[in-house]
Design brief:
- The complex is a heterodimer of chains A (399) and B (561).
- Chain A has helices at 2-15, 26-33, 47-62, 75-87, 103-111, 172-181, 194-207, 223-237, 252-260, 274-280, 313-323, 326-333, 351-358, 369-372, 381-394, and strands at 37-43, 66-72, 98-101, 138-139, 142-143, 149-155, 157-161, 266-269, 288-291, 297-305, 375-376.
- Chain A has 399 residues and is of the alpha/beta class.
- Chain A has two domains: 2-151 and 302-366, 3-Layer(aba) Sandwich (D-Maltodextrin-Binding Protein, domain 2), CATH 3.40.190; 155-299 and 373-395, D-Maltodextrin-Binding Protein, domain 2.
- In chain A, helix 2 packs across helix 11, helix 3 packs across helix 11 and helix 7 (194-207) crosses helix 8 (223-237).
- The radius of gyration of chain A is 22 Å and the shape is globular.
- Chain B has two domains: 1-30 and 345-561, MetI-like (MetI-like fold), CATH 1.10.3720; 44-291 and 298-327 and 336-343, MetI-like fold (Orthogonal Bundle), CATH 1.10.3720.10.
- Chain B has helices at residues 9-33, 48-55, 59-86, 92-106, 109-120, 125-129, 152-174, 179-188, 193-222, 225-230, 238-246, 251-292, 300-328, 346-387, 393-404, 407-420, 427-452, 455-463, 468-479, 481-497, 500-505, 513-521, 526-554.
- The mean pLDDT of chain B is 87.
- The chains are: A alpha/beta (399), B mainly alpha (561).
- Chains A and B meet through helix 3, strand 2, helix 4, helix 5 and helix 9 of A and helix 12, helix 14, helix 16, helix 22 and helix 23 of B.
Chain lengths: 399, 561
């Protein structure tokens, strides 16, 4: 028994298996990553995203890393998994090597010390990232500090089927007026789905006069007063929703099917290119277009983070770096593939890479950067946590 | 001598394998439910979590929904299955249904539920068929036909799967009753076919399928995938809430999930107790009415209703699968078109590589699990031969224990426990979790044919100088090839259909056709769902096909095996 233990120790120590890779020494990261398998836990509800991740896997394979996409229904599942592993004392080789994450989940994991880092700003392709123009160093107001690496920009747009709803709606109030006039033709994903909570945030940001209060954490003192207009708004909107608000679609993509079936005419999206990609994919009728609100819409970045107990941190960093490569970014931005906004700064790219971005057609339902207009900041995560819980007890129990 | 396996150990090992994960899982779920999770800084025991849970506005509606859907589904499935059985083996409709219902049993719950949703939903195929020419609808009606607040669509989704199960269990039980002669006596005494059947045969059948019915009850009260696909979501049933809370990044979510899982366990225990009470009271009332001797000579129509309902349920599943097939090759398909605007193989081509890989993983997982289950079950049955006695009622309850305890109640704790024991997520823990559900079904389907084997053949083998192991391996098992393959096919279908054990115990790293299909359910991409659900069905059906084809080929030069 002792012999076995000593043998095990001897085998472990020289190789220093449990030491974390040093992100600054990229050659060492690359060689350590050889042969590693990276389990990327990413929301798997959208087939176009799944296909893109599969393509990233092919790129990773050329660098000696095997990428496995663990398809989540809710990113919070991955957070829970890492948390229960920490509780159980499994501090090495956990089930998850990388998570597609942002907002409240990132805040919770960073707060609980569940993340590896800082690593993001040491990745070679970080040099191309647009640090000034895009919100890649704060995530829902929480400082990133290198604990997650950005890979896509998202901004709220509304998809409308012009065959039934030709006009663009300029504000949340106009949306309400339209829904009252045309009951049963609008719905939103059920919170706590991220797109559902995004709809609530978008409504709040659009209907309150002063949004600066949302940049600081919610307090017991200000929460009720600040959110009161939102509940008034939802009390009016809910009876006019699809199924009178008794049923909600589970996720964002579920709304695509509802538009295709002509059940609803309007849906929220967090990806300006989603509608074009879905038309190309034969999931939406080609009469769908998108619009943003006059005061602008909420925008944020999607990131990848590495759990503290991943056994393939080097491999995960290689994948995070691939995600930031101009080739991957131009593919993600292609509206026929994914239509996600790039996080890169065009001015920092080589002429040929820039030309690849310029060559992209916007697609019939995608707004140009100018049309997308100003981006509204994400509120601090504490607002969303409270609003989602309140939403569940107000509207999530309609019976 | 030491080379001969000691078969007496098999029942102990098997029962241990079934009850240890269940009981340990329950304990590990109970601790956080009572506020005890020291690793996260919660030191109980206390009742705070239950106070929070009971105070939540969605709790009682969810409990009510869970109980009404679960009990209604069980009542309807049992009633329909018994009505079909009462029609009698002689009727043509019965034989036709029997041929269809058996393969239906292997259609995974999730695939059947998807098919049903695509068929009966407001934008489903039935509405399309009659729109707009008959209904006047050029948009789908804004009515919650599926995900209805009462959960009726979910009940239907359960009934289409549980009725074939209870029917086939009843059919097997029928073989062990003296049905034909009992009916002859009843007829001679002037009782009608249906009323006679319910008075003399039903009590004999019911006694034998009591445990399967209770298993259906426990399953229906805790099902996850069907509830996710067809059930309401404001609020959903308790098991969906548990899953949702278990995934909450905030720590108290896990505690809420554990407490709700305990409530669900209690609901199932009470429901089983209540069902037993109804059995006793109903038995007393029925025997009084039977003894009264009232004849209802006509009444054939009652069985005919059973046959018709059975035919409708069969049609729902088959047409559901057909619609899945159409969706899988659809291009854009707008409402109210009956057929897709364009067809293409794009979805198959796009998902093909991923599906091939997942199909292989699913098959390997199921094959290993079923192989182990067969060894255990044959070992247990062979132990009976040595001891010349059958397992008592107590042992049968152990066998059914994993099917009687709601999955959510023990899998949640089992997950935490396995991580703490150092079982990293991977294939082995998932195989163990699958075994817990596969072994009971393999045992139930293999035990009767195994016991029915003519022992005189064994005596001849022994007289020719062969030991019990050689008799088992060279005579009994080869001759039982067909039932063994059938049992394996049942086990395979059970393994393929497992959602929660694969998801929770596999830590997301083990992807099967079922976990992938259900993960897509939220996304609503019907084309992708259709492809996954069809492959899931195929994975479960192929072994049944093999169970028919392989023995026919192997025994092509033999008669009567």
């Amino acid at each position: 028994m002792f012999k076995k233990l000593m043998l095990a120790t001897a085998m472990v120590l020289p190789g220093n298996v449990f030491a974390d890779p040093n992100p600054a020494d990229w050659d060492a990261v690359l060689s350590e990553a050889q042969g590693q398998t990276v389990y990327w836990n990413a929301w798997g509800g959208s087939t176009t995203t799944n296909d893109f991740i599969a393509w990233i896997g092919e790129q990773a394979a050329t660098q000696g890393v095997t990428l496995e996409h663990v398809k989540l229904t809710d990113t919070a599942d991955a957070v829970t998994r890492v948390l229960s592993e920490k509780q159980a004392g499994q501090d090495a080789d956990g089930a998850i090597d990388m998570i597609w994450i942002n907002g409240a989940n990132f805040a919770a994991m960073k707060d609980a010390g569940l993340l590896f880092g800082p690593f993001a700003e040491q990745l070679p392709n970080w040099a191309y990232v647009d640090k000034e123009g895009k919100t890649v160093q704060t995530d829902f107001t929480v400082p990133v500090e290198g604990y997650e690496s950005p890979w896509a920009m998202a901004q709220v747009v509304f998809m409308h089927d012009t065959a039934d709803l030709p006009e663009r709606l300029g504000s949340m109030q106009e949306l309400l007026d339209w829904s009252v006039a045309h009951p049963g033709r609008f719905t939103y994903p059920q919170p706590p789905d991220f797109l559902g909570t995004t709809f609530l945030k978008q409504a709040l940001v659009d209907i309150i006069a002063d949004t600066s209060v949302l940049q600081a954490p919610a307090t017991d003192e200000n929460y009720d007063a600040v959110t009161a207009p939102l509940w008034d708004y939802l009390d009016q909107l809910t009876p006019t929703l699809w199924r009178q608000g008794k049923v909600y679609p589970a996720t964002g993509p579920a709304q695509l099917q509802l538009i295709a079936d002509n059940e609803v005419d309007l849906a929220i999206s967090f990806s300006p290119g989603e509608a074009t990609a879905a038309i190309a994919n034969e999931q939406l009728p080609d009469t769908v277009r998108t619009f943003v609100l006059e005061k602008g819409t909420i925008g944020n970045a999607s990131f990848v983070a590495i759990p503290y107990n991943s056994g393939s941190k080097a491999g995960a960093m290689v994948v995070a770096n691939i995600l930031l490569s101009p080739q991957a970014q131009v593919r993600a931005q292609d509206p026929n593939i994914l239509g996600y906004g790039t996080v890169l700064d065009m001015a920092k790219l080589s002429a040929s890479d820039r030309a690849a971005f310029d060559a992209l057609e916007l697609g019939i339902a995608t707004l140009s950067p100018a049309e997308l207009g100003s981006v509204q900041a994400e509120p601090h995560p504490s607002w969303m946590t409270r609003i989602a819980a309140d939403w569940a007890s107000r509207y999530g129990v309609a019976q | 001598m030491s080379l001969i396996p000691n078969f007496r150990l098999f029942p102990t090992i098997t029962i241990g394998l079934l009850i240890v994960p269940v009981l340990a899982g329950l304990v590990w779920t109970a601790l956080p439910a009572f506020g005890h999770l020291p690793a996260a800084g919660f030191n109980g025991p206390n009742l705070q979590i239950f106070t929070d849970l009971l105070g939540w506005s969605g709790f009682w509606p969810s409990v009510k929904l869970t109980i009404t859907t679960g009990v209604l589904a069980t009542l309807l499935s049992t009633l329909i299955a018994m009505l079909i059985l009462s029609a009698g083996a002689q009727s043509g409709g019965f034989q036709a249904l029997r041929r269809f219902l058996s393969p239906l049993l292997s259609v995974p719950h999730a695939a059947a539920a998807f098919g049903l949703a695509f068929l009966i939903g407001p934008s489903g195929w039935i509405v399309r068929l009659f729109s707009p020419w008959a209904t006047g609808w050029d948009r789908p009606p804004d009515v919650a036909i599926i995900q209805d607040p009462l959960g009726l669509a979910m009940v239907l989704g359960l009934v289409i799967k549980e009725t074939p199960f209870l029917f086939l269990m009843g059919l097997a039980a029928l073989g062990q009753t003296d049905a034909d002669r009992s009916m002859a006596v009843a007829r001679a005494l002037g009782y009608g076919e249906t009323s006679g059947w319910f008075k003399v045969v039903f009590p004999q059948v019911y006694r034998q399928i009591r445990l399967p019915i209770l298993a259906v009850l426990a399953y229906s009260l805790s099902v996850v995938d069907v509830a996710l696909i067809l059930g309401p979501n404001t609020p959903p049933t308790l098991s969906v809430l548990i899953l949702r809370w278990a995934g909450d990044p905030a720590l108290d979510g896990r505690l809420m999930a554990a407490a709700a899982a305990m409530v669900q366990f209690l609901i199932v225990v009470l429901a089983i107790g209540f069902w037993r009470l109804v059995e006793v009271v109903g038995g007393l009332l029925l025997s009084r009415s039977f003894a009264a001797g009232r004849r209802q000579p006509r009444g054939r129509w009652v069985s005919d209703i059973g046959l018709s309902v059975g035919a409708i349920l069969t049609a729902l599943v088959l047409f559901g699968l057909l619609i899945l097939g159409v969706w899988s090759v659809a291009g854009f398909w707008g409402f109210p078109n009956i057929l897709p605007d364009q067809t293409s193989l794009k979805t198959w081509a796009r998902l093909g590589p991923a599906i091939v890989e997942t199909f292989a993983d699913t098959a390997v997982l199921a094959a290993i699990t079923v192989g182990l289950a067969l060894v255990l079950v044959v070992g247990c049955l062979q132990a009976e031969v040595g001891q010349n006695r059958r397992p008592g009622a107590g042992a049968m309850v152990f066998l059914y224990l994993p099917l009687l305890v709601p999955q959510t109640a023990f899998l949640l704790g089992l997950q935490t426990m396995m991580i703490q024991l150092g079982f990293h997520s991977g294939l082995l823990p998932v195989i163990i979790a699958h075994l817990v559900f596969v072994v009971p079904y393999v045992f139930v389907s293999l035990s009767d044919p195994f016991r029915a084997w003519d022992p005189r053949l064994g005596v001849i083998g022994a007289a020719l100088g062969h030991g019990p192991v050689a008799v088992l391996l060279r005579l009994r098992l080869p001759m039982l090839l067909r039932p063994i393959l059938t049992a394996a096919a049942v086990g395979f279908a059970v393994s393929v259909g497992q959602y929660l054990p694969t998801l929770l115990i596999g830590g997301g790293r083990i992807a099967t056709l079922t976990t992938e299909a259900v993960a897509l359910s939220g996304g609503g991409d019907r084309k992708a769902i259709a492809v996954w659900a069809l492959m899931q069905t195929l994975a479960a059906l192929l072994p049944f096909l093999a169970a028919i084809v392989v023995p026919a080929w192997v025994w092509r030069h033999r008669k009567g095996v």
